[in-house]
Description:
About 35% of the residues lie in helices and about 15% in strands. The protein has about 140 residues and is an alpha/beta fold. It has one domain: 3-Layer(aba) Sandwich (Rossmann fold), CATH 3.40.50.2300. It has a four-stranded parallel β-sheet, with helices on one face.
Amino acid sequence: MTIPAERPSVLFVCVHNAGRSQMAAAFLTHLAGGRVQVRSAGSAPADTVNPAVVEAMSESGIDIAAEVPKVLTVDAVRSSDVVITMGCGDSCPVFPGKRYLDWRLSDPAGQGVAAVRPIRDEIEQRVRGLLDEIAPTGQA
């Protein structure tokens, strides 16, 4: 599937929307500079974003302290060009014509910031690769 020339939309999904999907969405928002519409959600959202994730992202210069986990909706999937799952299993709805990627990443839940840093760094690298693919710098 090709990504539309206009502003593509990406949805990051994990179970609690408190760690991996929040980091991925924050990196893509930060790096894309408005070239990509970014969403994140969870199949069973937590009450708050993981504090170790907030701290690890702050170390990278990105403040996600005000973010709140959101519930995954069919509309969010339907309105996204690319859906990236991170351990949400079979709870993610599948629609024809969407591009689905499954990023297998360690879960930062219950871990300290030292354990979150390598997960954060891997997510950043994957997001950079995705951004180069769907919205290269020379594109509007």
